[in-house]
Amino acid sequence: MVDVQHWLSVLPPGVVYLIVAGVIGVESMGVPLPGEIVLVSSALLAATGVVEPEWVATAAAAGAIIGDSIGYAVGRRGGRPLLERLGRRFPRHLGPAQLARAEQSFARHGVWAVFFGRFVALLRILAGPLAGALHVPYRRFLLANAAGGLVWAFATTYLLFSVGRAAEHWLKDISWAGLALAVLAGLASTWWLRRRARRFEATEPAEATEPVPAGDR
């Protein structure tokens, strides 16, 4: 992550915002990319004054919402065969086991899997295409998608920005310690949401995984 931050720091701010939106957007379409790493690195850059936090958060939210919506449209058109092709192309990230877990999350929790999925690597990638393939009503999907994208983007950016500024003020003579503190605090600040989100990945052996009609979600 430090390498990503260093690479971003030499780019003009406008390019950084485009990279944040682009990487997160493509990741949300169903392609495994390090969207969260790019967001965290950019938020830490904002704490040093290289970029503006409001634009980092806005770019991340826009990428998440638009990317998920495109993924939804692609998934609705391509259906499960598309997800299976993605699984063969990216077996480590989107293989049969990961797809089955994501499908179970949607079957049990509907659009809430989209909201909390923004905080889980697996569902962050699969939420859009999977929701489309399962014919989740788009209005419900869009509401959960927008809410999750905005909360994830702005909360992550401003928490890391605030902690980074505090670390820079108190630890300006020990830059590596300030960076470590900012990263640890940022991870701790999202712990509760991640813990809630993991419930959508958990498998209950005693519970059969049956598809839920789209109209009931």
From TrEMBL:
Give the superkingdom in one word. Bacteria
Q: What is its main location?
A: membrane
UniProt xrefs under InterPro entries? DedA-like, VTT_dom
Q: Does the keyword Transmembrane apply?
A: yes
- Transmembrane ranges, per UniProt, are 6-26, 111-134, 141-162, 174-193
Entry's localization field? Cell membrane
GO cellular component terms listed in the entry, alphabetical order:
plasma membrane
Q: Where is the VTT domain?
A: 41-159
User: Any idea which UniProt keywords this protein has?
Assistant: Cell membrane, Membrane, Transmembrane, Transmembrane helix
Topology with respect to the bilayer: Multi-pass membrane protein
Give the family from UniProt: Belongs to the DedA family.
Q: What is this protein called?
A: Membrane protein DedA, SNARE-associated domain
**Species:** Micromonospora auratinigra
